[in-house]
Amino acid sequence: MKPITRGLATGLAALACATLTLTACAPAGSDTASQTTLVVGAVTEPTDVPDPISDGSLAGYNYYFATFDQLARFDSEGVIGPKLATKWEHNADFTQWTFTIRDDVKFHNGQPLKPADVAFTYNKIKATPTGDPATYMEMFESAAVGPGNTVVFSLNAPFSAWPTITTGVSIVPESVYTALGSAGFAAAPVGSGPFVFDHYTRGVEYAVKRNPDYWGTKAAVEAVTFKTVADADARLNGVQSGSLDIALVAPNQVAAVEGSKSVHIESRVSNGVTFLGMNATAGPLADQRVREAIALSIDREGIVKTLLAGRATVANQLVAQNVGGFDPKYPAPVRDTTKAKQLLAAAGYRGAPIPFQYATNGRIPLSSEIAQSIQANLAEVGITVTLQGTDQNSLSQMIYTKKSAAGIYLNTYAPSTMDGDAPIASMFGGQWNDYAMLPETQALVAETRTVAGQARIDVYRELFTLNDTKALLIGLYTPDASYAVDPALRWQPRADGMITVDAATFGTD
Prior knowledge:
The structure is a single chain. By secondary structure, the protein is α+β, with helices and mostly antiparallel strands. It is 31% helix and 21% strand. The protein has helices at residues 10-19, 58-67, 115-126, 132-136, 162-166, 174-187, 232-241, 254-257, 288-297, 300-307, 337-347, 367-380, 392-402, 421-428, 439-448, 453-470; strands at residues 37-42, 72-74, 80-82, 85-90, 96-101, 140-145, 150-155, 195-201, 205-210, 223-228, 246-249, 264-269, 273-278, 312-314, 354-359, 385-390, 408-413, 474-485, 489-490, 505-506. The longest helix is centred in the last third of the chain and has 18 residues, at 453-470. The protein is globular. Residues 1-26 form the signal peptide.
């Protein structure tokens, strides 16, 4: 994104009013009690087509949680509970799970949602190995309709946290998806959720309208539009002008509008960790001592206090404190530039440039400023990095599709499942953030799936200790998620970062 250190210019406000036209640009404080359409300022959109079988992006989940249902759900505090499933149970070694499915749910086309649709959805994800959801479900083997109204999930390895996976899988009707295929279904999706798909214009907006026949609590608003607004200034100005109702804002924007009558700020600790990925096989980074020196040189406290205005927490591990697997007793990282210089001298490093890739807009607020701060930290000990900013889609392609990092890169992982399995599988289990491909880290990832409770946290601790020793990836911070909200809107942010709006209401009561 562009640097967000400038003031909120009147011209930008006018531009936001001119370009964000889903709701009228009304003066602050206008009567919104009768407002029936809610507009969300989305940071980005799915890289590919918005198909829940193949897409697992946070941007896509915001769409899918409006239009589809999942077997289980998290509440706003991250506590799991039933949704399409009324209960579930597992066998002794966590390799088989049986879910009982509600029998009163219909898809938007009137077709009953049956266990066969659930089984089809999961089996189709497995049959789409290039899709995001498949990478989260490597332990999944098959789903089959069981006795009564049940679905039986068979796993190829133990996984004690399987129910968390089901919170992110949107159930599709087998007959419709089979007839339309991925692209066709993305263009005309049929779900069973609280909203019905209306239209999608790529790069502009994704719109839904209330489902009057929803099996659960009906949505309070009649329509919702997720409008893509990549620039943080434009998002904040959109809420101030009245053209947006909810928008994620950057940490350094919050203080300027706190107490404002035109904007209400809702904040909470997020479920993500912003981290520095490293290709541990590339150039100077192939030497563990150079990687250790990088980890020791970064001023995490400075980034949090100065750039993020204190609206973040220094990361001491690669899962956030509200995510399964977090170890509350894990030690805090220490900055030691003297030791970093000693390691570099021992490695014979003499300033060979290391590429530093990051997105200049998209999922990490103030990404350019953070990259520049890290560059300055590393320069203090004699490490040279070359900044290579790009757009979010290009960076995502580099990370998730090509796995082609040239050096270090700025990334974030906020698991919608509120569990550490997806992040650690990505980082240490042979997936896209795992350049070292160490058998010992992959074995520990597998071990976390065989245990539960404190025993599982203990294995996470062993994994993170090994990561810190070898300096494979570097946790930076867990950001607070701060949202600018229309003061007349009653809406609560979620621990998983999803913007769900079925319970949102306008009014002043």
